[in-house]
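Q: Sequence in, structure out?
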Amino acid sequence: MTSFKRLFVRWFWFFASLGAFMLFLQGAYLFKSVLRDQQRNAWDATENMASNLVRYLDSELVKASYIAAVPYKAETYFPEVELLVRILEDQVEESFRGSLPNGMHLRELERLRGVWEVSGLYNPDGHPQFVTVRELEGNEYLVGIRMDEKSLGFHGSSLVLPVLTGEDGRVIWAENGPFGRHFALLGWVDREMLNCSSWSRGRIDDGRAYWAKCFRVQSMRLLVVVPEGEILGRVLSGSAVPIVMSFMMLGILFLFYMLWRNQVMPDVRDITDFFKKMEKDLSGLRCPEELSQVIDNLSKDVENRKSRCRLEELHSVLSGLGAAMRVLWSQQEEINAFGEEVAAMNASLAESNDILRKREQIWGQTLQVAKLVRSGYQAPDEVGRIADTIREMLSAFGVVVDRLEGDTLIPVAYSGYDEGLPPEPVNIHSSLIGRAVKEGLIWAEDVRKEPGYLTLHEAVVTEVAMGLSHMGRPVGGLTVSFTERRRRDEVMLETLIPVASVLAGFLDASKSRQEIRESYYYLLPGPEAAGDNRHIPQRDGGAPKPHRGLCDPNIPGPW
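A: Exactly. Output:
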């Protein structure tokens, strides 16, 4: 994965390198083409110069022949013929023109027979001459012709610069220019270049490069020089259009990049920032409500970014994204509502399960008491455990179970009340539990406002008093105390009603046993017969409760 900037730079340099490579190939091709054309022109110019030189020398040879034929008539004619000497066996027999004395012995004439050569040996001032040995009018003559630049027929060219040298490389003539002056000042042409049969590269004193090739003309050398700078100039002029087009292409690419960076990239960057923000906001959510709120905020953010977007395509993308966010928000709201319903149902089920569990536990204890009662077993501890279970399951502060004897309610078992003093017997006509025995049920939401309430503990705020009756007869009462204010709870009452029924049966059965025992008390030995001599502790005093469950054995009862 790569960014547009890196992609653009990569392709920009690819196209730039490709353009430079193509320009290099085109330049190399143009250079070779121009060089080849100039070499061809140089070859043509060399052939023309060579042929002109030969014609010139032949015409001068005719003049020399005329002078040799009638020397007395041509003394002042044909000044180009500077040397005309008749020779005999390598000696000067007679000198018609020039400064060679008669009888002078000449050496190396054999190599001049039939060919022209440039030499300054036969001229007093050392000026080079075209010399040759030819047969004229039946005799051998040494002929010397003065060099004439016009005879070469060179009309001047910036790309073809001739240099005429002798066989030994001595410069005879050079064009009037920087390259010609260079060779003229040297006076000699390097032997390697003189014998070069192909084009070779060199430099003059000022550093300019040239290409040169040497041609043989008679016994002379004609060096043709082609300046490299002129060739490069023509190459560049020929490559001007491709170079301009290449730069225009690079300029178009650069303008496209600027357009993308200034017009497209801000919107692309804005969308990228939005997705980063969305990722950050969505990560770490803890509840569906937060997700719904985040989606709503993101939807509003999309609308704001869409209003700033300038490109139609990206605007369409943001519109689609906004529509998707709205649909997602709507679905999330439905999911949240469904989740709330499920949570409420779960809470209700949990509450129901808790109530059922409490009822099951309370009713289990109650059922155990009921079984014991039916079996005739005396179970004071079971009543105490029922009181403990009721208090724990209903989160009550305290529970008291009273049995009715005459007009007095005597505590049978109690639980809670900070393990303080045990409850005392109360009169049925002057207490809240007594009213409940007569009325059936009293829910005292605030005990301080209820008439006849006897304080069990200072912390009690709400109290539920239920009368216990069996076979239509009142047999006792059940008191459940709370330290916080509680409203009437039908579910709690539904839980307590079966328990109250079993407790009523238990108390009635216990009372029946007591009556039976009292009718046979005279059969019991010792203090058992004195059933009315036991002390009954008072509700506001007495010794602390020794244990939870049934009351102290000192309290009168059927056990």
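Confidence is low (pLDDT under 50) at residues 528-559.
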